[in-house]
Every structure is written in C-alpha cells, then in structure tokens.
Amino acid sequence: MRTVQQSPSSIASDAHLAELEAELAALRIRVRTLEEAERTARTADARLRALLQHCPDQIFIKDAEGRFTEVSQSLLDRRGWTREQVIGAREKDLYPPDLAEVFGRQDALVRATGEPKMFEVTFEDFNGRKVTWIAHKFLLESGELAGIATDITARKAEEDEARSTADKLRLVVEGTGIGLYELNMRTGVGPWALSTFRLLGLDPPDDLIGSVKMWRSVVHPDDLPEAQRAHAEAADRLGPWQAHHRIVTPQGEVRWMTAYGHFVERDGDLMSIGITLDVTEQRAMEAALHAGSARLKLAMDAGHMAVWEHVTGDDRIIGSTELNRLLGHPAEFEISVAVAKAHIEAEDWSRLVGAAFAARERGERFFESEFRYRLSHGEPRWFLLRGEMDLAADGTVTRTIGVVFDITTRKVAEEALAAREMELRAAVQAGALAIADFDHATGRFKPSPELNLFYGYPPDMPLTIEHMRARYHPANAIAVREAARRDAAIPECMAYRREMRLLLPGGVERWLEAVGEYIRDENGRALRSRGVVMDVTERVRMERHRQLLMSELNHRVKNTLAIVQGLAHQTFRGPGITDAVRRTFEGRLEALSRAHNLLTRENWESADVRDIVEGALITHGGLTESCSVAGPRMRLQPKPAVTLALALHELCTNATKYGALSVPEGSIHVAWRVTDEHEPRLRIEWRECGGPPVVPPARTGFGMRMIERALATELRATVEMQFASSGLVCTIDAPLPPLAPDIGG
C-alpha cells in the first residue's frame, strides 16, 4: 500500500480544527456553568430580595454622590417615608443636619479606605427617644456604597450575631475567566491561551507555549499530589478528568482553580486538552452563602421567624424547617393551603386573604396581616405574616413569598395592657376622676379628655400648665401655684395633695382635689408629676351647707340656753330662793353650754375626753401646775360627752366648795384608761389631794345623784365615791362607749 502523506497545510488545518473543537467544547461547558450560576443567582436573589423587604433591619445603597439608589421596606416603614421620597435623595435631605453630617463622615471613611467599616451611633430618633444603631458599610464593585443598619437599643447583646444575616448581604460576583490549554504528555508542552497564563499569574512567553513544569510550579504543594493523581487516572482510561486545587502565584497570591479536560490521542501522542477556571470568588461566595445561611438560621431562630413560599395554583406551601416548628408540626410534615386554613381562625383567614387582595387592588406587591394559628394540641398562637407577590406580565400573581413571625408574647402583653387600660378607664369614669401626667420640661400634659373637661376645655385640646392656671379662682390662685412650686423644688417631696378652686367661663365655680407623685432624676429634679384629679365640688358644697346648718344649730342652742337662763333668773328672784341655788343652776347651765360649744367645734361628731376634762377644770380654776390630767386620746359621741361634762362640772363645783379647790394647796388628778378584762371598758378616776379633811355627807345631794344617775343612763357606768380623809376619790367604770375610734397615746 502506498502511504498517503499529509501536507503541512493539511496538518495545520487539522490542528486548527482540533483547537477550535476544544475551544467550542470549553465554551459549551462555560455556557452551561454560567446558565446554572444564573439560575442559582436568580433564585438566591429572589429569596434575598424577599428577606430584604421583610427584614426589620434597615438596608440601603447609595451612589458615589451619596444619593439613595435602594432601601429596604423596614427603613421606609420606620421613618414613615415613601420610596419616591427616599430614592434619589441624600441624607441631608432626610435627616437632621448633625445626624446627616455623622453619616457623611462614615461614608467618606469607607470610600477613603476602601475597607468595610462598622459604626455604632447613639442619637435621638424622630420621636425624641435615644436609640443605638450599628451600621455596616462597604463598597460594591459598582462603586456604590451599601449599608445595613440594626437597632440594638433593647437587644444589643442578643443581636450581635444576627445583624449580618444573609438577608442583609448583597453578593457581587465578578465574571469568571476561562483559560484554554493543550499539553503533549510526552513532551510536556503545548499551546496555551493568553488567559491561561493570566489566570495562573505567569508572564506569557511570546509563543504562548506552556508546560507541565509551569503548571506544577504554581500548584499549591498540598494540592499537587491529588491533582496529579486525577490526571493519571484519566490518562489511563483516555477519559475526562476534573481537578480542584489551589495555586500560589509568583506574587504570593493563593487562588482556587477548577480544571476540566479530557485525553485524546493525536499522531501517536497523548494530548490533554481542557480549560481552567478561576473559582476563587465562587468558592468565597459559597462560603459566604454557607455562613450567611447559618447566620440567617440563627437570626430566624432568635426572632421566631420562618420563610415560606407558595406558587399560585399549587396547594403546597414550601417553608423552611423553622416554619413547621413555629406552627407546631413535625419536621417532615408538608403544609398545604388547606391545612393552614383549617388551623387559622376563620375571621383571621378572611383578614389575611383580604390584606393580599387589598394590596393587589392598590397596585402593591407587599402585604401583611396578623392571625391566630391553633396548634395540634389546641393552643392558639399569634403570628405576623409579611408577603411579597411576584407578578407576571399580565399582572397575575405567579407566586408569593415571605416570612412569618411568632408574636404571641407581644399580643398577650398588648391584650393584658388593653384590659388594664379598660379597667382604669372604667374606674376613672365611674369615680369622676381624671388622669394627670405633667412633663415639667415641656410644660404639657399627656392627653386626658376628662382632665380637659374638668378645666372647661375641649377634650382634644393639648393642655398646658398655662391653660390650667387661667382657670384658678383669684381667691386662691397664688396659694395653689406657690404650693406646687414649693413641692416640686423639694427633692425629698415625692407625693402631693392639693385642693383647687376654679372659676370657669360663665362664672361657674368648681372644686378639684389632686393626689399624685413626683418622678425625679438622680439629682432630685422633678421630671414628671402624675396622679388623679377628682371633682369634689358637691362635697365642698355639702360641707359648706353642713357648716351653715351647724352654725345655725349652735346659734339656736345658745339662744335657747340664754332664754332658759333668763327664765331661771326671773324665777329664782322669788322668795325662798337663795343666791347659792341660783348660782348652782347657772353653773350647771354654763357647763351644758361649754359642752355644746366643744361639740359644735367638732361638727357634732364627737368630743375628746381630754378636752372635756380640761374644759371643766379650767372653768373652776383647777387646771394648775399642782393638778394633772393623764389618759389616751379617745372620742365620745355627743350625748355621752355632754353627760360626762355635766358630771365633771358637779365634781369641780363640789371641790370648789368643800374639797381640794377650796384651798390654795389643794390639787386634783384625773386619769383614765381602757381596760380589757372581759370586754373593753373605760375607767375614769377623779382624785383630790391637799384639801380640807373629808367627812362623808349625811345625805346625798342633787349633784351626786345627778352624777350617778346620768352616767348610769348614758354610759351604763357604775360610780364609786370614796370619802377618804385625804380627799375625795370618784371612780367611773363603763363599757367602752361606741364611736370611739381615736384611741392613742
């Protein structure tokens, strides 16, 4: 046979064709790889976008000139802004100047260093509350600046690990380069594409011929044995091969590479043809995604949150493992729309579906609603659902994704607070009360419609201290203001009670009583005063009316006693009536008048035993240094008080005529106490000393009979008279009289 020899041009053509085939195969592999990466990125982007929209943290992106190009929904919700207000605006257009300046310095630092930075800032938010935020700021490959802001005011310690969850991350992936190569395994050399040299960090020679030696020089020593083994096994079977390994560039940079290829025979030589991909960024992204998934799971666990997805037309609900745990189902349980509807309260289901339809009607993709989900053992729990609807070109919903939060603890607290507020409101309304909560710094009261009405203002008008002072009655306005100023200025004063007289429009008078407390700082300065205000107008009017009646009664009693005294004076002027008899009667009448005066002073409610005893002794000059009065404070009803006053008058009269008060050296000692043998009893002892020798009377006079009979009738008392030579001792023993609550030392 003749051997057909190929011309040099034919050989070159075949080599070129083989090279093109290898490049085509490599390009196909790259296309498949990019398509798979695109699908993965698209799915990840959708989920991350959902988390971005529903995450309670605030995420934003700004261009090189500081204008917002993207913000999370939570940032808009917290500030009450719309996307139209924020997108394209700078921070100085939205925040107070000092806060915008702080944010600007942070951005400048990140841009100047090119490194991600974390900032912690404490400031007053739009509601005047001090808050602490941590902001993570970093540069994207596009030159934009991204940031994630987390409110750590109340849960700073718990959210250190959660603030960098995957829903707060934006991954920027650079395009992956492809390096084409060919090696003759006999000679160890072959043509390489320019990109191959660049991927390996090598300077390309002019002829672009690479070698196995070059490849081995850059492969990481720890990975070289495995990579060579993969090549050797594929060479033995003339099959495809794949290797993952690190390289160390001449500049010392370590990068990850993935090589795909296959072995072919050409002209009796074994040829290795393939591609090399730099997967450093891809592996970093995978590591970041793995770490982000771990952080995301931690954040969802800590926040009692789960992710879910529902495709329109499919009954299934695809959820994270956390979803089943939150809803009380086994880990492998498949949740469907029918199952969810069966467990959700009917009215909550209607509200949930209605929220989605209402958002759709408004042309919005996002919606949220709260619902109760009854667990398998019957316990209902509260959840907050936030969802986002994906729309097709014709506007129909293709799928819905979102998150659910367990808010049972919050709802229970809210319901308990609402119940307490209702109870308080009912108590306030039933008791004609108003809540007063005054801020000393601003001079304003917290809204209280009842308080406004008390002062004659519309219920919804913001009430200030000036409005209240304008209603003070001129007669006591200065006294009320001075009392309030004095109490507020005393650091030790923690409570107050004031009675205020108001003069309302139209000349209407109203009396209010305020009772409350001060809230002070560590220096004793009054920050707030809060309490209740009561309308006591009727009580004051009744008190005034009662005092008027008491005055009138006292006046009439005095007139009556004056008339009786006048009649007695005329009657005793007749023959046979001595002046001593007249004076005795007038003395008894005067004792009765004193008792009435004492009771009138006490509003005819009761009279203190001490006041009765001292009053009798003073009238007869017996309350001197040589006399004594001892006993606990206790009050008697009016009738027993009058009887005791008359009895003591008789004893004083007798002592003045015949006993201790008839001589300068005489003295009287009156003592009383409460005993408790079989029942509480009142024991009063009258003891005279230093007077003339006492001789028992031959007969019992009217005064002594009156003492014994009156006390026995009104106090159910027994009276014992001891006429000792040293002085009279009178002991009165009676059951403890009723309405005597004021017993003390």
Question: How would you explain this protein's 3D organization?
Answer:
The structure is a single chain. By secondary structure, the chain is α+β, with helices and mostly antiparallel strands. The protein folds into five domains: 8-33 and 175-284, Beta-Lactamase; 56-164, Beta-Lactamase, CATH 3.30.450; 304-413, PAS domain (Beta-Lactamase); 431-535, 2-Layer Sandwich (Beta-Lactamase); 542-735, Heat Shock Protein 90 (2-Layer Sandwich), CATH 3.30.565. Helix content is 41%, strand content 27%. The chain has 21 helices and 28 strands. A five-stranded antiparallel sheet has the order 2-1-5-4-3. A five-stranded antiparallel sheet has the order 13-12-16-15-14, with helices on both faces. A hairpin with a 5-residue loop joins strand 4 (130-139) and strand 5 (145-151). The chain is rod-shaped and about 180 Å long. It starts with 7 loop residues before the first helix and ends in a 10-residue tail after the last strand.
- Contiguous runs where pLDDT drops below 50 for at least 5 residues: 159-176, 739-745
Mean pLDDT score: 77
* Global geometry: rod-shaped
As laid out across the biggest beta sheet, the strand order is 2-1-5-4-3
Radius of gyration based on Cα positions: 51 Å
CATH superfamily membership of the largest domain, which one? Histidine kinase-like ATPase, C-terminal domain
The number of strands is 28
